[in-house]
Every structure is written in C-alpha cells, then in structure tokens.
Backbone:
C-alpha cells in the first residue's frame, strides 16, 4: 500500500516535500458549497488564504465564483494581478499600508471591480478618511463571540461611532466565528451559526443604516449548515482542502481531504517503530492536535479507498524532520517501505501547510487529477 | 516606550510583518563562538538554516568562517551559488535528490571546495554508491541520545556495516544532540555535551578507521561549554539570533536576542487587556512555550536597555493575527500605543520565524545597525 501511493507520487516527479492537491476532491468541495450558497441566494466569497494558488483559484472560477476574500494586502495584490476584480481584505486596516490599499482600490475600481476593507476602530476609520481612499467598500468588523477582533455585536455606541467616523459609506457588517474551531460536532456548529446570524442581524438593526450587507464565514459552520439564508454572504476558505482539524471538529469526512504533503522517507528505525521523513515545521507547520497519548502533527495518507492509514501518526517535528510513529505491530514489513519512498501526510491545518509550500521562492506543489 | 521602538522601526520603512535583525548583537554572538572555537582548535561550521540570509552569512565571513552547515539540498544550492565552497548537508541523504547532490558536489569540488552528506543506513550508502557521487564527503550520522535519526552510538555492528556499504571513504561521525532542548540550565547542558563527546569518541574507537573527524552541534550545549576540545567540529546555528526557547533553556541572556518580528498593531481592546497585531502563524510560526497559565507564542521587545517588556505576551496566533495579552494594569495608557504603531515580538523559535519571513517570494527583513 505504501509502494502504490509512493509510486503515484514519484510519477508526478516529486523528490522533496511537496503540497499534493487532489483535484477531484477539491473541485467537489468547491461545488458543494457553491451550489448550497446559490440555492439560498447567498454570495459565496471564498477565502483564498487557504490555497494562495492560481490553479485552485481557476477551479473556483470554473464554479462561477467571481468574488473573493484574502487576509493581507499582499495577497490582494497578487490575486488582483491575476485578474480577480472583486476582493475583500478580511483583515483590519493597517494604516501603514494605506498607500498600497489606495493604489489597489484605484486599479480595481477603474476596471469596474471593488475592494472591501474592514475596520473596528475610529482610528482606522480616520486613517482611511485622511488617506482619501475613495471607492473602497468599508465593512465594520463585528465580534459575535470569537473575541479576536471586531466591535462587540451589542456595543451599539461604538458601532455608531465607527460607522460615523468618516471612512465613507458602510457597505456591511462582517464577522468571523472562529470559535467554531473550539467545538465538536454538527449540533454545536449549527448553534454557533444560528447565534452568529442572529447577532449580526441585531447589530444591523441597531445601526439602522440603509442596505447594510451581512457577511459571515468560517468553514466549520458553513460546512454543516444547509440553509444560509438570513445573511448575504459567506466567506469560508479551508473547505476547499479541509484537514485533520476539520475532521476532528466534524465538518468534513476523510474522503473530503484534498491536500496533503508528500514527504521523502530518509530514515527507518524499526526498533522504535519510527520512520523519519523530510517534512518538518517548515513544510507542515507546528499546528498540532492533542490525542490521548500526546500531540500529533499529521496522519499518513493513502491514495485509495482508505484515505487515512490507522496506526501511524506524525508525532514530532523539527525544522526539516518529521518523525512518524507506528503503533505496535504496524511498522512496515521489510520491503513495504524504503528509504527514498514518498509518504503522504495529511496536515493538521492545510492553510498553513499550503502557505509554507506555495508561498515560497521555489514553490513545491503537485496536482493529482 | 512603545512609541520610541515603533518610531525606530517606522524609520526603517517597515509597514508589514518584518524580521528585524539586530546586527551588533548578532555579530557579537558570532564572534563569541568563533573565538571560543578557535581558542580550542575546533572548527566552527555554523548551521545556516537559522538565518538563510546572505547578509548574515556575510557577518560570518567577516568573522573568518568559511565552512557551513545547511539542512537541505535546496539551501546548499543557494549558498553555493552565493560563493560558499565548503558545505555540509546535515540532513540524511534522500535518494530522490541524488542528481542534485551530484551536480552540487561536482560544482563545489571543481572549485576546490567540498560537499558533505550524512547517512545512517545501508540503503542510503547504496544510493550514493550507485549514483557514483564521487568526491562527496560521507559522514555517518550518530544517535548519541536524541532519538531522531542516526546509528545508535553503541551499535557497532551497524556502524561497521554502513561504513563498509560502498558510499566511499567515511570522513567522520556527525551528531546533533537535540535533547539539549529538553533540559534547563547550564549544568544539565554541560552534562549533555560531555556525554555526547564521550559517546562520539567511543563510536570512533569502535569503528577504528583512520582519521575520522567528530562533528557535534546544537546551540544550547555549544553556548555554555567553554572548551570544545575532544571533538573536531561544532555546528550550532540558532546562536546567531537566539530566541525565547534558548532563554528558557538558559543558553543565552535577554541581551543576546538578535532577531525579532516587527508587527503592526491593528486592533486595541482595553476591556480585555489585549491588542491584535498583524503577525500570525505565517510570520512567527506556531512554536510555543508553556507558561504557568498557558502557551505563549512570543514576548514584546523594546529597543533599549530593557529588551523584554514584562507583563505582555503573545497568547494566541491564527494565520495572520496575533493576540497580545497584557497583565492586569499593564495595558498601554491612551496615547502610548496606537493602531498603526509597530510592536516588536521576540519569537519562541527564531529559525522558524526567519524561514517564514526570509524564505518568501517577497522577503521582509530589516537590519538595525
């Protein structure tokens, strides 16, 4: 089973740690959410920070997507250069980047596109106003319970103050319910969705401005909710690839996993049931999941009907090395796995693994069709 | 105090998350180990994975260093292209990369340089032999207690078998005592050094080959041992920058920290004693340290006599966001810290932060002289 997967990966020309994207699955993940959003009359504005790839971006375009979300001005610049015309930067405005934001907005609006930015403070509104960033869509960032950024959904005084601080007309309210990553199972996720949507509507009602849109988005809730109505836009990103964290949360199944990291085997240590791979923190990231007997940094993938190999886990990562520990009795028999074979590792957090392998001077990405 | 540090960083033109290298400190860190190694007649072959920077490489050259260590073939290619002629790849040979290794060795040896590679298996020796990678220096990787890769130091049968497996003459034995990262304090580190050196000598004696060199290296032990004699070469890397992990271990002081990440402040939340910065897992890495009340991902740095601000810690990271939590009563007073100011964050693991910010299509690095 190792040899078959390794052989397929070698046939792709892989020799070093490489992001392997399973196209059929990724396209299915895209279509599923695009159809569901369209059926509800809600805009799907996917977050492109997950893949940062023009190839994957093309699969979204094939599914009819023309509005996107990014998490930095640099990422917005890259996708604007690739032809995307309607971009929301779902990261609070950094006043030091106003010249880049202005230039980007000017370019997009001149071509009939739009640029959205998010703020949650009078200071950021003032920075936008004083920079004269006309034509930018201003979104107010709302905290519906995550507690990272945003105006508390029920802080009506601050909502009104920021809306009136001169940044220009407010296009809508935007939130990210990142606390959906801290629960397990569909009922808990649906509850977060419902509460988020209700709080966003309450904040909109309190502001009482005309035509405000509501934008929400996180992969866990958007994956398990069937009816998005009640908001105008969803912005999940991770769903294109999913990963072990989503599997743990319960927002996907093992057959939805669409991005793994191919890692060369460089050491075999049967006495301690371990193999060492070229695949470390600079390829998989140090994101981990706690299991009963410790942290894991990945699981071993197989190309076939059983996507996750039981009894094998990435249990340690240093900068370039990963240690794969096999359960007792599961260490590959002689000849089953050799030095120079490729193992496929499902990452804990696919966004970070993709960033590490795509966003490099020498990107290392392969697509399985 | 925030405004002074922020002002210095802004004067460098920083507008986004940026690796800030303190040149005076980094050069002092380099000189300290270079002098100590020279005094003992031991070669310092620093590990360049920590900085991956040609600028920092130049500071090593200024200190008389002309032999280096890297952790991948790609990194070896880059530094060879920059003129470094004596390179050891301290990562096990990956047979899939033999064509690149051969080409690199041919280039270096044609110019009078040398390329070292490491193996710990008959399979890797056979791959080298069958590729006809002549002129490569073969180092046997030894496990002196870390338990990641290498032939167990006392496994004389395997040592002899790999040495005789046809990869060519063995230049020496090489180990990395990474378990030095799991202890605290100088006495424990010195004990690891002594045990490592003794085990390496025992392995060499058992092999009984002529002229074998001994290469050891990890920043914690090399930072606290005064006399390196008994081995031929040391290969620490992190010492050029150090970081919070080294500070915890006890291998450096706060005034030795030489690399931080400048992060724009994008949100201020006085009610929960938190600020949000543009500085996340893709800038600082998810490497963490456990403190009494949870994990931390960084501390706040100040440019001045007190390099670490007490009562402020990076307590949460997502892809692009970091949350800085201030202790009760330590939240900056109005006017002390604003949106659009820059905070300096000492990373937990400087090698990973540097990799994330240097090894990018759009590197983001600044040097303070």
Residues:
């Amino acid at each position: 089973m190792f040899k078959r997967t390794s052989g397929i990966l070698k046939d792709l020309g892989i020799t070093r740690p490489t992001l392997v994207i399973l196209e059929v699955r990724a396209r299915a993940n895209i279509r599923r959410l695009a159809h569901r959003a369209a059926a509800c009359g809600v805009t799907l504005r996917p977050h492109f920070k997950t893949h940062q790839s023009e190839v994957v971006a093309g699969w979204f375009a094939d599914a009819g997507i023309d509005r996107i979300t990014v998490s930095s001005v640099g990422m917005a610049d890259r996708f604007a250069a690739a032809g995307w015309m309607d971009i929301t930067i779902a990261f609070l405005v950094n006043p030091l980047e106003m010249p880049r934001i202005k230039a980007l907005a000017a370019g997009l609006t001149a071509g009939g596109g739009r640029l959205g930015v998010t703020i949650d403070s009078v200071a950021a509104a003032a920075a936008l106003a004083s920079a004269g960033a006309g034509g930018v869509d201003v979104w107010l960032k709302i905290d519906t319970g995550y507690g990272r950024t945003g105006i508390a959904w029920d802080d009506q005084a601050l909502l009104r103050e920021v809306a009136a601080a001169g940044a220009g007309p407010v296009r809508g309210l935007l939130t990210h319910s990142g606390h959906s990553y801290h629960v397990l199972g569909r009922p808990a996720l649906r509850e977060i969705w419902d509460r988020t949507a209700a709080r966003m509507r309450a904040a909109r009602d309190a502001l009482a401005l005309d035509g405000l849109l509501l934008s929400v988005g996180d992969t866990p809730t958007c994956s398990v909710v069937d009816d998005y109505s009640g908001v105008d836009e969803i912005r999940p990103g991770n769903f294109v690839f999913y990963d072990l964290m989503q599997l743990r949360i319960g927002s996907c199944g093992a057959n939805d996993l669409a991005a793994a990291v191919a890692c060369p085997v460089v050491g075999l240590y049967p006495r301690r049931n371990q193999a060492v791979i070229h695949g470390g923190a600079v390829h998989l990231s140090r994101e981990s999941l706690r299991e009963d007997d410790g942290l894991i940094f990945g699981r071993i993938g197989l190309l076939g009907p059983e996507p996750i190999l039981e009894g094998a886990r990435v249990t340690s990562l240093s900068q370039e090395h990963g240690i794969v520990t096999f359960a007792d009795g599961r260490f590959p028999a002689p000849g089953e796995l050799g030095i120079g074979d490729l193992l496929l590792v499902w990452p804990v957090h696919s966004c970070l693994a993709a960033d590490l392998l795509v966003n490099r001077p020498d990107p290392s990405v392969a697509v399985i069709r």
